[in-house]
Amino acid sequence: MFIPGKTVMENGSQEFNNARAAMASPLANKLFGIDGVTKVFFGSDFITVTKTDAVSWAVLKPDIFASVMDFFASGEPIVHSTEALSSSDTAIHEDDDEIVAMIKELLETRIRPAVQEDGGDILFRSFDEATGIVMVKMQGACSGCPSSAITLKSGIENMLKHYVPEVKSVVEAPPDEDDLMVAKMSDSEFSKLEAQLSN
Length: 199
Prior knowledge:
Number of helices: 7
Strand content: 15-25%
Largest sheet: 3 strands, antiparallel
Radius of gyration: 18 Å
Shape: elongated
Helix content: 40-55%
Mean pLDDT: 82
Low-confidence stretches: 84-88
């Protein structure tokens, strides 16, 4: 986790799972240009970078740190479009029923701050009234982390069930289409795609 000492995201958070998605942000695009970077996540005042196992942090840290500092010195916007922001996932809308509103409020006020302290974020996806299942997406350092399943069940699920009795279970949402595309690519295919995107 990198803490630049400045606000990174004014509202919500943003995750970039591949170089194509990173084109929405000059900083994420710059970070994906560093060999070994596989995912970038922006929180309110921190940046989480995920790397391949083939590259050590000792090699990556100076390049990442320099890119982050140069970016903030440039004064460029963190993202090109505010439409790309995921901050609306816990916004309570008029058409949300009381249960969904309570779930969103708990996620925003109690759960999200704790998850962000660990360099990640949690996004609300849905609530199925018939089954009592809340679907969420873990991002940043919490995405794919072995302890995220424990966090999901022991922490998040227990809190939601305590305050919202209608909640029976909390599950991780299936991967997005972009996540699946990147997961299916071999290293050589990804390198070819990266080369095409940088041209």
